[in-house]
Amino acid sequence: MSVLFRNCAAIVPSSNAAVIRDADLLTDGPAITAIGHDLVAPDGCRVIDATGWFLYPGLVNTHHHFFQTFVRNRVELDWTRLSLIEWLDTIYPIFARLTEDCFYHSSVTAMAELIKHGCTTAFDHQYCFPRHAGSRIVDRQFEAAELLGMRFHAGRGGNTLPKSEGSTIPDEMLETTDGFISDCARLIDGYHDAERFSMRQVAIAPCQPVNCYTESFTESVRLARDKGVILHTHAGEGESPVIEARFGMRTIDYLEKIGFAGQDTFYAHCWELTPAEIARLAKSGTGVSHCPEPVYLVGAEVTDIPAMDAAGVRISLGADGAASNDNSNLMHCIHSGYMLQSLAASGRSHPVPLPSAFLRYATEGGASCLGRDDIGTLAPGMAADLFAIDTRRMDYIGTRHDPQSLIAKVGVGMATDLTMINGRIVWENGEFPGLDEQRLFAQAETVLNSTLF
Asked: Cβ neighbours of residue 421 under 8 Å, at least 6 residues apart?
């Protein structure tokens, strides 16, 4: 199907390309075919009056934990009321009760919220595998993505180090390295599609160095390089002293030594990195998924994004899970990320990047970290992943002269008017076309209440 967006007030091809005013955008199937003025609608094309609309590249979320959506807004899990050990002892038994249906419906919930706010590609780091939940948890996530039309990258996580040897993971959520690697291979063979405009990809993502044996990481590297898939893990989020006590080196040194670094690798968080470690990431090409909202709640330091950007580190944005961020709104992360860096700017060696840079992190930066060259910008030949904001509202008076800075500097406090993924409109006029949101809500709420609370 073709769709012509007629008379857009502004089309934002990327964070630094010239904004195209009063223009049209045409899609055909999964791709954008033309951007320009007075485009001709082909036969059978749907024409949308986009007067007053700003069109942006779809956002790319590079770090999330969908399953945590079922533990949002719980006072008894508030970081401000619990020590880290108390929090871990409280929340992991809850995670251990999750069922296969919980993983499916929490994924639908998180992806639906992401789509409403302009996200078109989502990477989920699924590391919670209670034994009673079975072996098809990630399979159910792909099912949820297909239902909503989300472009989905599954990060198959896992934890292998028992609590008795220093991890924080209950035994009922542990896997063996062989079991973890075997399921990674199964998922890659069954779901990973490396073709252009792929809607399904798989990454190998051992949860974090403190909760896994070294062999879990080295075997991940071996399999990923053999299969040609991306590597991901948590790093630089306060664990370096533990890694140093175990191995005599900090986390970045440890990961580089075992080969878990490079252009096919990205880490989540990285707020505790030294300048030398930032330089090492830039040299190796290892990317970073910056999750700004958890920093407000649990971060001991504000991630030095200006230094990373100045060094040439590949930066993307992640919403993260509800253990440390109770919404799935990457659009909001663009605004909060910019504001957070502005707050922490005093005394730093590098200035805060321009507001438009934060849009870049959430689009082109995300595409780079996921190894994609077909998403992240609006141009002929690129995937038809985009979202639209009707700016003919009081919210946007005085802001419309600079669409590239709008989201970071002003913020967008409502759902998009339209979200398109791979040429398919998946959110429009406050609805998911072809889906009953109230029914989805009722199904998820029933599973949540019957399982956890």
From this structure: 58, 115, 120, 121, 149, 150, 151, 384, 385
CA 148 centroid distance within chain: 16
Instruction: Say how many C-beta atoms besides its own lie within 10 A of residue 453's C-beta.
Output: 9
Work out the end-to-end distance of the chain between its first and last CA atoms, rounded to an integer number of angstroms: 44
Model confidence at 299, in pLDDT bands (50, 70, 90)? low
Tens of pLDDT along 45-71?
A: 999 999 999 999 999 999 999 999 999
**CATH for 2-57+377-428?**
2.30.40.10
Tokens 């939940």: give the residue: 133
Structure tokens at 166: 């220093």
Write the CB contacts of 105 (distance below 8 Å, at least 6 apart in sequence): 70, 144, 443, 444, 447, 448
Q: Tens digits of per-residue pLDDT, 323-344?
A: 889 999 999 999 999 999 999 9
Per-residue pLDDT reduced to its tens digit, 171-227: 999 999 999 999 999 999 999 999 999 999 999 999 999 999 999 999 999 999 999
Smallest CA-to-CA distance from 169 within 126, 215, 213, 211 is with: 211
Q: In this structure, what token pair is assigned to residue 210?
A: 């403190």
Sign for the pseudo-dihedral over CA of 122, 123, 125, 130 = positive
- Whole-model pTM? 0.98
DSSP 365: I
C-alpha Rg value of the chain to the nearest Å: 21
Please state the domain extents for the chain: 2-57+377-428, 59-369
CA distance 143 to 256: 35
Q: CA-CA distance, 407 to 336, in Å (whole number)?
A: 10
Homologous superfamily of domain range 59-369: Metal-dependent hydrolases (3.20.20.140)
Are β-strands 265-269 and 20-28 bridged in parallel, bridged antiparallel, or unpaired? unpaired
Q: Which backbone phi and psi does 373 adopt, to 5 degrees?
A: -115, 15
By three-state DSSP, how is residue 116 classified?
A: helix
Closest CA to 53 of 23, 4, 13, 8: 8
CA atoms within 13 A on the CB side of 241: 2
Q: With beta carbons less than 8 A apart as the criterion, state whether 448 and 442 touch.
A: no
Contact indicator for 126, 154 with CB cutoff of 8 Å? yes
Cα–Cα dist 441/438, whole Å: 5
Return the structure tokens found at 388.
Answer: 């639209």
Q: CA 267 to CA 130: how far, in whole Å?
A: 24
Residue with tokens 């700016």: 391
- The structure tokens listed for 311 are 């060094």
pLDDT digits (tens, 9 = 90+) for 370-406: 999 999 999 999 999 999 999 999 999 999 999 999 9
